[in-house]
Amino acid sequence: MNNKTQPYNQLTDLPPNIDLDSAVLLKSSIKASRLLAELKGYCQTLPNPQILINTIILQESKDSSAIENIVTTQDDLYRAMISSDDNAHTSSAAKEVLMYKEALYSGLELLKKRGLTTNTMVSIMQKLKNTTAGVRTESGTRLANPSSKEIIYTPPEGEELLRKKLTALENFIHDDADHIDPLIKLALMHYQFEAIHPFADGNGRTGRIMNVLYLVHLNLLPLPVLYLSSFIIKHKGEYYRLLREVTEKKNWNEWILYMLKAISETAALSLQKIKEIQQLKEEIIVISKEVLKSSYNRDLVDLLFCHPYVKIKTLEQNKIGHRQTASTYLQKLAKANVLHPMKLGKEMYYINHRLMKIISN
Fold first, then answer.
1. What DSSP string runs through 136-164?
2. Is 342 strand, coil or helix?
3. Which class in CATH covers the domain with range 297-360?
4. CA distance 201 to 217
5. Which of 136, 146, 208, 311 is deepest in the core (most CB within 10 A)?
6. What CA–CA distance (Å, rounded) separates 270 from 130?
7. What is the pLDDT of residues 206-238, one digit of tens each?
8. What is the rounded distance in angstroms from the CA atom of residue 352 to the CA atom of residue 128?
9. Average pLDDT over the chain, rounded to whole?
């Protein structure tokens, strides 16, 4: 049995020596694959998927950060998105969530250039943490229960060993000859990355970014839109328990089933959210045409779905109108109940409140 207080240098490479083609695992994987395919198909029918998907990605960023106890409110987060010129009033948690979003998009670009490699993983973490640090070189990393402070896991140590483990993981990810179901493979690789724990900080969030990038890499999703962290937040205790049980008891089956269920439920949730957002957008286009008449601008509606919180300056910066014109647009849309005006300090914000309701539910 693994000694929790000693570095787990004996961590074996993937795949584990278990039956990965069991009827139970494959049945669960087929269900998850079907729901992912439905999500992918719907995304591909959208005229401008990036606009709608941006809100899903930001929610994933928020929840993935919350798993690490980096908690921000929806209001803080969306105000921070349009206030990059005023970082002094942005909470540290909101900044971290926005860095997660940037790391995810950066990882997507790196994925196209070089695949899901060790260097890609390092780059994602560096973007996430705004650091130049790489793979751990120092000893003494311990993972402890935040309440009792009891050590629950000690990851492998030594930069050479960590890089060897990461290379083996990279080879496993790109080995198409192993014929392992891709979603089962995702569960295996996620455990392995968390067990290697290659960085001083940011491992959990980097690992969750890798999950969705892997699905894009395999063309199972067109964009990183899986709302996976929402499931983990709800079942956080089980998530960490099952990770430990793989290490301590080789309980692979329950871990894989947990991840497959997470994929199934969050694929369905992401699809529902995107459909609701798309329907709302179509309704707001109709109302905006009636309210703004010849001044109607499709770019303005797109902006309201990229940024649920806007102010006059947001419209100016996006070249939708000068200050007076922008103010008129926002006031007219507020009067038509498309937007909800709210004064916070000296700033007047206009909130796409129906979008916020969809996102928050």
1. --SS---EE-TTT--EEE-----HHHHHH
2. strand
3. mainly alpha
4. 25
5. 208
6. 29
7. 999 999 999 999 999 998 888 888 899 999 999
8. 28
9. 90
Looking at residue 178, its amino acid is D
Q: What's the CA gap between 200 and 220, in Å, rounded?
A: 31
φ, ψ dihedrals at 161, nearest 5°: -65, -45
Q: What would the mean pLDDT of 22-38 be, rounded to a whole number? A: 97
CA dihedral 123, 124, 130, 135 (to 10 degrees): -60
Kind of pairing between the strands at 340-344 and 309-310? unpaired
Which one of 3.30.70.60, 3.40.50.880, 3.40.50.1980, 1.10.3290.10 gives the CATH number of domain 23-272? 1.10.3290.10
Of residues 104, 106, 61, the one with CA closest to residue 80: 61
Q: Which residues contact 115 (CB under 8 A, 6 or more apart)?
A: 174, 217
Give the contacts of 295 (CB within 8 A, at least 6 positions apart): 325, 329
Q: Which amino acid is it at 310? A: V
Same fold yes or no, 23-272 and 297-360: no
What ranges do the domains of the chain cover? 23-272, 297-360
pTM assigned to the model? 0.90
CA distance 52 to 279: 11
Residues in the chain: 361
Cα–Cα separations (whole angstroms), residue 61 to 31, 79, 163, 212: 25, 15, 27, 12
